Each structure stands twice: as C-alpha cells, then as structure tokens.
Amino acid sequence: MRSYNNLASFLLVSVVTYLLTPVCGKPVTNPVSSRDNDVIKPKVFIIDMFTPEAEVWYDIPEFDILAQNITIPGFSPLFPDAHCTSDGSICQLITGEAEINAASTMSALVYSGVFDLTTTYFLIAGIAGVSPKVATIGSVTFARFAVQVALQYELDAREKPLDFPTGYVPQGSFSPDQYPQSIYGTEVFELNSDLRTIAVNFAKTATLNDSAAAQELRALYASVPAYALGAAPPAVTECDTTTSDVQWSGALLAEAFENTTSLFTNGTAVYCSNQQEDNATLEVLLRATLAGLVDFSRIIVMRTATAFDRQYNGETAAANLFGDAPGFEPSVLNIYLAGVKVVEGISNGWEKVFEQGIRPTNYIGDIFGSLGGEPNFGPGSILGGRSLPATAASAS
Ligand SMILES: *[C@@H]1O[C@H](CO)[C@@H](O)[C@H](O)[C@H]1NC(C)=O
Ligand SMILES: *[C@@H]1O[C@H](CO)[C@@H](O)[C@H](O)[C@H]1NC(C)=O
Ligand SMILES: *[C@@H]1O[C@H](CO)[C@@H](O)[C@H](O)[C@H]1NC(C)=O
Ligand SMILES: *[C@@H]1O[C@H](CO)[C@@H](O)[C@H](O)[C@H]1NC(C)=O
Ligand SMILES: *[C@@H]1O[C@H](CO)[C@@H](O)[C@H](O)[C@H]1NC(C)=O
C-alpha cells in the first residue's frame, strides 16, 4: 500500500483484524495435512496488501470469497488465512505491507502444498502513489515493468556531490545515471504484455468510482502542462510500477525515480505508480516458476492510484505527504470495480482461452534471464538466453 495517511484508523483496523481473527477464522489445526487429498486449484488468486484493499472483495454480488478460510503457516499473524470461494476457483490473501511481508507471505503460499498454482492467474490488486504526468488519483494502472527503485546507494541530498541531481546512485556505479554494476536480480521484472492488454480491456468495461474531493485535488494540478493527465478524470492506464519500502513524496525524488525506472529498463518502462511490495511478490513468483509451481506468464499487476507522488504548484512535498488523501476511497473502490471485471473475464473465458495460458510475445522474467530468453534491459542474460536448469522445465 502507499499513502494511507489516516494512521489512527489504519492501526484500529489492524488491531481489530488481529483481535477478530481467531474468532472469525475457521480453526484449522493442521491445514496442510488435513487438505492434502483436496488440493485447491484456483483460476485467479487476488493478492492484496492490507485490509481496505481486501475488504472491497467481501459482500459482493459476483462471488463469496469468504466461503472458505484456510490458515496457512507462515502468513502474516495479522492476516493468517487464505480466503476462497466454495469451489476454490477464486482465492485471495493479504500479504501485509512492504517488501518483507510480501515476500514472506507469498513464499508461504507457494510452498504450502495447499494449492495447485500451476495454472493460476495472480492479480496483484492494491493501491499506489501516482505520477501526475501519467495518471491521476482514482486511476487504475496495469504494469508491464516493476522496478525496485530504492535498491541503490543513497547519500543524504545535503551531502551529495554538487553535480549529482539526486542522492541516489545505482549500486556498484559512481553516478546517478550509470547503469547498476552490482546487480542483485530483483531490480527489474517484466510481465506478460499480451496478458496485460487483455486485463486492461476487461477493466475498461468498468465504470470507475470518483468523488468531489478527489476532483478538487486533481484540479490543483491543472496549472502545470506536464500534469495534464493528473488533472484529467481517472482512467484505466498502462504504465509501470516501482517498489520501495520507503514511502516517499516530492517532485525531486519523483524525478530521481523516474530516471531510475528509465535507466534500469533501458528506456522502456514508463514510471507511474509507486508501492511497497510488488518486486518482492514477483521475485517469489519467479522462484516458484523455476520450481515448477507457478507460471510467471500469468501475473497481472493492477495498482489503483490513491495519492499523488508529488506536490502541485504552490504546495510543499511534506503537505502532499501529510495532507488528506481524497483519492483513497475511490482508489480502494476501483480495485474491486475494475478488478472484478478481470476476475470474471478470466473465469468466463477459462476453457476457451485462459486455461492453456496467454503466450507472451515480449521477454518475461528478471534481469538475469532466469526463465530463459534475452532481457530487453540490463546487461543481458547470464545464461546465454537459456533458462536455469533442472526445476525450470516443468513450469507449464
Ligand atoms: C471467514 O472469515 C471471515 C472473517 O475474516 C468471516 O466473516 C467468514 O464468515 C468466515 N467464513 C467461514 C466459512 O467461516
Ligand atoms: C520490480 O518489478 C518491476 C515490474 O515487474 C520491474 O520492471 C522492475 O525492474 C523491478 N525492479 C526491481 C528493482 O526489481
Ligand atoms: C463512489 O462510491 C461512493 C461510495 O459507495 C458512492 O457514494 C458514490 O456515489 C460513488 N461515485 C461514483 C461517481 O460512482
Ligand atoms: C533526470 O534525468 C534528466 C535527463 O537526463 C536530468 O536532466 C535530470 O537532472 C535527472 N534528474 C534526477 C533527479 O536525477
Ligand atoms: C542497457 O543499458 C546498459 C547501459 O547503458 C547497456 O550496457 C546494456 O547493454 C543495455 N541492455 C540492452 C538489452 O540494451
């Protein structure tokens, strides 16, 4: 999640969730062994990061995702259950926020043995901060690239060399504009662009929510021509996402991370949204693909825009961070309004289209080329274009 400014009510929600969980959750004593003859094979798994993103999927007319609660060892103590429809075709979990929670929960899921995820579509469905250059609060964005922008060296800007435009420097490099020389492998993930197009077209059939307060904030961005899309009504947009544990605000960091996104992807990605989890989730799903448990070509990253990443003309960066977030309510509602079209589209087209998968025509995977093929960014495949051996072959 990102920019959930109302800390008091967030804490209340978390505490209430925590207190209610043992009461509401089905007391599954040993979920793995009791279910091992009864593996659930979801068509769609919805990945949310905190309670408000999850609750919009409850009490909806389309399906009852609270029909089954399954406690999974290793999930967040705040969110110990996976939730599924009674037939197991649609499931949901809450990772907890930021990179460590996302990676831990997703690892617990894929290695639990409770689910067969080999043909499952993952819909990462959360809120995010948004660039007014590309989209606006309330918009629904679908990413092809996810970039871990804070995986860098950092100098406090007050102590940076005078000729550096930012205090962030890619790891192993000596200036902000030099491609990272020390690569961890999670810097960039590229997703199935053909699947994204299909998801976007499903989402475009939704009528998005908006509010008067969101419209008032948007209007304040109209005076800067570069922010025309920030001042325009919310829409479904294709643009890319950045992951950072640090929730940042302001035009200078925004420009620095725009540049990082462009640098890391060799100019291909268009930065628009920032969040705290996706590269962690994607790294887990990449490793699970190599283990034959998940199909990396079946991942959709949908982020709805809750707050601007930078101030409007005349506002301060701090006011943007600490001020009201009128985009919060519409952005949370739009997770459901747009997301349910994607879930239904996949479910309804299962036999004809989605069960066999959407073959990607672009490179998919990480910066190392772990899944095979040549990344169109970074220094090139470390495997000469082949996939990693052994466990890779059985990914379907
Ligand atoms: C699943 O848990 C939710 C609360 O998280 C509860 O409302 C629902 O009734 C539970 N479902 C079952 C089948 O127990
Ligand atoms: C994070 O994931 C995005 C989207 O999959 C990718 O474009 C980006 O390069 C990744 N960044 C890092 C640092 O892993
Ligand atoms: C947005 O959702 C709120 C809360 O459900 C509702 O009151 C409002 O009418 C909706 N607005 C639009 C434009 O759909
Ligand atoms: C971003 O890149 C542009 C173009 O190379 C450069 O002029 C600007 O100083 C950079 N800004 C930051 C904050 O890195
Ligand atoms: C991406 O840019 C870096 C540095 O500018 C370069 O070394 C690398 O070859 C480029 N990768 C691709 C796939 O074009």
Account of the protein in words:
The protein is of the alpha/beta class and 396 residues long. The protein has a single domain, classed as 3-Layer(aba) Sandwich (Rossmann fold). Strands 1, 2, 3, 4, 5, 6, 7, 10, 11, 12, 13 and 14 form a 12-stranded mixed beta sheet that branches. The protein is globular. Bound molecules: 2-acetamido-2-deoxy-beta-D-glucopyranose (NAG) (5 copies). One 2-acetamido-2-deoxy-beta-D-glucopyranose (NAG) binds next to helix 8.
- The poorly predicted ranges are 1-35, 392-396
State the end-to-end distance: 31 Å
Any idea of the CATH topology?
Rossmann fold
Shape field: globular
**What CATH architecture label applies?**
3-Layer(aba) Sandwich
CATH superfamily: Nucleoside phosphorylase domain
Number of strands: 14
Average pLDDT value?
A: 88
- Assess the beta-strand content as a share of residues: 15-25%
Helix/strand/pairing class, anyone? alpha/beta
Element order: H for helix, E for strand: HHEHEEEHEEEEEEHHHEEHEHEHHH
Number of helices: 12
How many domains comprise the coordinates?
1
Rg, Cα atoms, Å = 20 Å
Largest sheet composition: 12 strands, mixed
Helix content: 25-40%
Please give the CATH class: Alpha Beta
Bound molecules: 2-acetamido-2-deoxy-beta-D-glucopyranose
GO cellular component, one term: endoplasmic reticulum
Function: Nucleoside permease that transports adenosine and guanosine.
Signal peptide: 1-25
Keywords: Signal, Transport
